[in-house]
Amino acid sequence: MLAVRHLTKRFGGFAAVNDLSFDLGPGEILGLIGPNGSGKSTTFSLLAGLLAPTSGSVHFNGAELAGSGANAICRQGIGRTFQIPRPFSKLTVLENVTLAAFYGNAERVSRTEAERRAVDALRLVGLPIDPRATTAGMGAAGLKKLEMARALATQPKLLLADESLGGLDEAEMDQAADMLLRIRDERGIAIIWVEHIMGVLMRVIDRCIVLDHGELIASGKPSEVAHDPRVVEVYLGTDAAEVQQRTSGAMA
Ligand code: ADP
Ligand code: MG
Are 143 and 87 in contact (CB under 8 A)? Predict the structure, then answer.
C-alpha cells in the first residue's frame, strides 16, 4: 500500500534523509528505528506532507503523494501522531478529537458524524467518553492516547506513530503497545512506529527498518535486525553484552 522510493530531504547541504526506499503492506506494523538525529521524524514529516522532499517518491494506494500538502495527505488516509502532544487546551477532550474528525476525513462529515467518529476513536484508545472532560491534568499517558485518538478520528489507513511511549511507565508502555496491536487487528490499519524503547517495539512489530545518518542500513524481522552487526554498532553501541540485554525480551 505504501512504496517509498529514493526519498531524500536536504537542509542546505545536509541530507537528513538520503535515498530511502521501503515498502509497507496493508495491516503491517513496521518499526522505524535508529539513533537520535538519524532522520526518523523527518521521514514521518515527508510521508505526512509537513515537509516536501528534495527528491524521490511516495506512492500510497496508487497515488503519488510527494509534494502534496499535509491536509491532502491526511484526507488520503495517512494519520500522524506527534512526539510532543499539543492539544487545544481551551477545548474539551471530545472537542479536540471531533475537530480532527471534522477536518481530517476524506469526505465532508457533519458535526454529528464527526462527533460519532470521535467517540469511536476515544473508545478505541481507551479514554473515557465524557463530554465535559478537559485536557488539564491528563498526564503523559492520557495525552498520548488523546494524540492517538485525534489521528484515528481522521480514519487513516496508515498511522504514523512517533515515540508513543515517551514519558510512560512500564505498565503504560505495555498498554500503549497493546493499543497499537488492537488498532491494527480490529481496524486493519497499517502502522509505522518510531520508538526508542526496543523491548516493547520488538514485541509488536512485524518488520523493522533501521536508519543511520538518514540512510537505510538494515531491514528485516526484529530478531534478524537486532543481530545485524551494523545495527549493533551504530544503534546499540559496540557493547555486545548490552545488546543482548536490551534485545533478549524480544527474542524470548
Ligand atoms: P530523529 O527523529 O531520527 O531523531 P530527525 O529526523 O529529527 O531525527 O533529524 C535528522 C537530522 O536532520 C538531525 O541532524 C536534525 O538536526 C536535522 N534536521 C531536522 N529538521 C531540520 C530542519 N528543519 N532544518 C535543518 N536540519 C534539520
Ligand atoms: Mg524524532
Answer: yes
The model's pTM: 0.90
Same domain for 102 and 125? yes
**Is ligand 1 within 6 A of the CB of residue 41?**
yes
Tallying the residues shown for the chain, one arrives at: 252
**Index of the ligand 1 atom closest to the CA of residue 34:** 3
Is ligand 1 within 6 A of the CB of residue 11?
A: yes
Q: What average pLDDT does this structure show over 140-153?
A: 93
Establish if 242 belongs to a structural domain. no
Q: Which domain holds residue 168?
A: 1-77+156-222
Residue with cell 458524524: 113
Domain boundary among 106, 128, 155: 155
Q: Give residue-wise pLDDT tens across range 183-237.
A: 999 999 999 999 877 788 888 999 999 999 999 999 999 889 888 888 888 866 6
Mean pLDDT of the chain: 90
Which ligand does the CA of 166 lie closest to? 2
- Residues 226 and 120: their CA atoms lie apart, in Å, by 36
Q: Specify the number of domains making up the chain.
A: 2
Residue nearest to atom 14 of ligand 1 (CA): 37
Ligand 1 neighbourhood includes 45 CB (under 6 angstroms): no
Are residues 142 and 163 both part of a single domain? no
Annotate 69-94 with three-state secondary structure: CHHHHHHCCEEECCCCCCCCCCCEHH
On whether residue 25 sits in a domain, the answer given is yes
Cα 251 to middle of ligand 1, angstroms: 31
